[in-house]
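Hi L.,

You mentioned the student needs an example of a multi-chain input paired with its predicted structure. This one should do, with 1023 residues in total across all chains.
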Amino acid sequence: MTVREIAALTGAEPRNGALLDHVISNVAPLDLAGPSDVSFIEQPKYADSLAETHAGACLMTERFESGAPRGLIVLRTKEPYRAFIAVQRKLFPESMRPVSMFGADGVAPGAIVHSSARLESGVTVDPGAVIGPDVRIGAGTVIGANAAIGAGVQIGRDCAIGSNCSVTHSLIGDRVIIHPGCCIGQDGFGYIPGKAGLDKVPQIGRVIIQDDVEIGAGTTIDRGGIRDTFIGEGTKIDNLCQIAHNCRIGRHCIIVAQSGLSGSVTLEDYVVLGGSVGVIDHITIGKGAKLAARSSVMRNVPPGAQWGGIGPAKPLKQAFREVVILERLARRADDPEKQGD
Amino acid sequence: MTVREIAALTGAEPRNGALLDHVISNVAPLDLAGPSDVSFIEQPKYADSLAETHAGACLMTERFESGAPRGLIVLRTKEPYRAFIAVQRKLFPESMRPVSMFGADGVAPGAIVHSSARLESGVTVDPGAVIGPDVRIGAGTVIGANAAIGAGVQIGRDCAIGSNCSVTHSLIGDRVIIHPGCCIGQDGFGYIPGKAGLDKVPQIGRVIIQDDVEIGAGTTIDRGGIRDTFIGEGTKIDNLCQIAHNCRIGRHCIIVAQSGLSGSVTLEDYVVLGGSVGVIDHITIGKGAKLAARSSVMRNVPPGAQWGGIGPAKPLKQAFREVVILERLARRADDPEKQGD
Amino acid sequence: MTVREIAALTGAEPRNGALLDHVISNVAPLDLAGPSDVSFIEQPKYADSLAETHAGACLMTERFESGAPRGLIVLRTKEPYRAFIAVQRKLFPESMRPVSMFGADGVAPGAIVHSSARLESGVTVDPGAVIGPDVRIGAGTVIGANAAIGAGVQIGRDCAIGSNCSVTHSLIGDRVIIHPGCCIGQDGFGYIPGKAGLDKVPQIGRVIIQDDVEIGAGTTIDRGGIRDTFIGEGTKIDNLCQIAHNCRIGRHCIIVAQSGLSGSVTLEDYVVLGGSVGVIDHITIGKGAKLAARSSVMRNVPPGAQWGGIGPAKPLKQAFREVVILERLARRADDPEKQGD
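Structure written out for the whole complex:
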């Protein structure tokens, strides 16, 4: 891409004298960039890196221009990071979705596809993948090496199912990305006390995953007990999360790594859970609510709320006061002169 | 099943005029149920769903009967949920244990079984599964697609080992269910400082899993260091739990998702760990003790105790007071008029 | 090994009259040991076990000698555990690194190796493993059953990659151990708000793993966004940890199970994270710092610090005061007579 093309793509404005025909072939952070790389700066803490960068071009807001080294092609934009991502997406279209790890096309040798499975044309199945009876897979989808797709699963078009995933009892939309090592559709965790220990509660629901969902490596999603477990359109789930049976996750939610939802939790649309958030069962988190990393959600969260803190999650302002007051009390307890303070 | 058969199975009493020959073919929650479904109600918060349900029949306690819509077959019982589960177990016997995801019988094509392994008759091995030397597998057991069973592992009868599981150095009883993606029997995490970094401490124990244990997807259980790691009869472990080397878990325990036991932890019988509980090493949790979700267990827990709370786990009553007092102090700190309160 | 050889290996001093030709073939804890086992004692709480042990020999410090039963061969040493591990490492050399679970040698039947992959002599590939194009694997390395190694991955010598691992976009040094079920090299979790939901941020970095790293079962390590994710020499990571994109982990760190590092976290050399520690993004933890189990790291940690506690991690001394003061306040709040205390 030339600088001219980058400017056209992003709407960034080349500073006077910029070499519009200079060719950019890669992206890099300021400290690692070379002459054929474009970089970006948005935060003052990287000003030193800007001064010393060897990047060919850099996207930045006006305020950083005076700090640009001589010879750097400056591209002025109000949203440097967003423009940078746009260039990156253009330069690396194949990074938008995992591809066959075997460089394969069609059903690779060593893949086992049941005779009753129906694959549209343009499906790639990597070696060692196992596709069970009555599975349906849409055009353009890639099934990774040693993935196991159980009987009756339906997967839409242009999906990527990672290597070593296990998927059963699931209906999956289009453009869904499931990273390696996920387990989706197995029994939920349900028992009742019986005569000689715990009796298993049948788990007869499914997992429904809508279009454009992305699910991180090693995440587990149990199928529903008597309802379905549901993941709404565009929702992104990070690595090693646990979604229990009957959860209902809305559209465009973000669930950061190692978070866990107990059974029958509802997340309305646009909810954000920071890393390692835990939610007890039958809770509803309202539309657009944000939970800080490590929150323990023990009661319903209203729409738009920002909660977190020590112990049961609560409004962040209150949570912050608790942290401060506890620190203050501990300091006083340690200092006899301040006891009466 | 007819309503008459459901009544006979559960001991529920059909209300006057119930159509005893009405056929029930499925179960459903009140809001999703149709005429051929049986449902149940046990909690007042679902009274609205009861009033509007299209279910054919509903198991309930006497108190809900007046709220049942006309035409609903009412089955009176003191334990509606338990009766409902009994019907479900009768209608879906195959849901009691995962089956071959390939609909296979015997050793499927694409499975690799070492010549020295001994499989009883009636063992199912899904495609891609690898069974190592000297493995023993009992009748009726299903080994999932792409599971890997290492040298010398013994698995009893009527077990289900999920797809993409890795099992080594383990002795497994009868009717054990291990869901997909579990890693069982690998090295525990042990090192001592050496001359040039950390030296590995040999891990020469095994994993012993007794009858009727169930283990959730993605859970990891390390083999013992110089003892064995032990999981007692009937214990149920949820998804993404970590059981470190030398742990000794008693019978009929419940360990909810994302909990972690450090090395050499002992759980006596009937212990319950809520979700995401962490236990430091060499702790003993007494018989029947219950730990609230997210507890951090830093010292031994007496039998029968109910512990949890902020920071190191402690009796729940005390833990609750701490939460309340901290909230109160933070409120006061924010309100000058209450400072002297 | 004879007792004489154990003494020579460890520098332990046999007590007068010890049978130097007695043969030791195994190691065991005091309570399980028999005549051909060597055991050790280092902590007074095991004194009863010492008195009753049937071990053939026992490594101990001088203080325990008087408690040794008649007939036990006593080996005096200042570091009994270290000596015990030395014996164990000598007796079980094969426990230093996982071996083929199929007892295989070379490329096993059922393994799929791309024609452009280059394996040095002495590489073992277990059945079902899939090796993609342009992969390089060094001599002595074992690739476990059903592992999937993606295009262009380079793995050094004498490594062990566990069964059902997925490895892509990675460069791996020598003597690296990766336990089963790990996912390494997949996309990091990066999005920006777009017109119709979240747009994916390309992840074009790699994972670099230096020599002598060990990674526990089920751990996930995302590749870098525009930098590389980096794991320094000799670092040991336990099961079910999450390492996000762009993290930079130093040499000889210890990361205990279920810990999670958000994006762009830096761990300097010799950092220790206890179990289930969480670190928010762009944090630096200084050289040799230790974080207690379950810490939530919300700001940079200075070198050598020992932090932990309730809420955001802080120096342990301060954290401990907070726990104590909160307990005290809760007690007082419950006891009207102490309100004015």
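You could point out the following to them. Residues 3 and 223 of chain C are 50 Å apart (CA to CA). The first strand of chain C starts at residue 13 and ends at 14.

Best wishes,
N.
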